[in-house]
Amino acid sequence: MEAKAVDRHVGARIRERRIMLGLTQQGLADLIGVTYQQAHKYERGINRVSAGRLFGIAQALGVPVSFFFDGLETGKEQELTPRQRLCLEVARNFAQIPDQRHQEALSKLTRALADTRPAA
Description:
Oligomer: single chain
Shape: globular
Number of domains: 2
């Protein structure tokens, strides 16, 4: 696999995790000490992320460095399914709910909906 494809994969995984946490690109940039433009270039795979910077990103996003390489061994870039995109959007929106009681209520609701079984 060519290096540029690896850069794009790592960037996509950075973006995926950032969205999962409900962070903006500016928020990520602030956490890792770079400009918004630089964070954008990392996510798009335009600029390569150094080992030290990737370690800092992993710490900021609360994942091991290996997270960014998951799925790489398949030899093809992973496209998110519509369901995966929806799940990321839900996670991002959930993280932006300021009231913890509302978050807990929503969590209980989703558990109840997920546990619904057709009546026998």
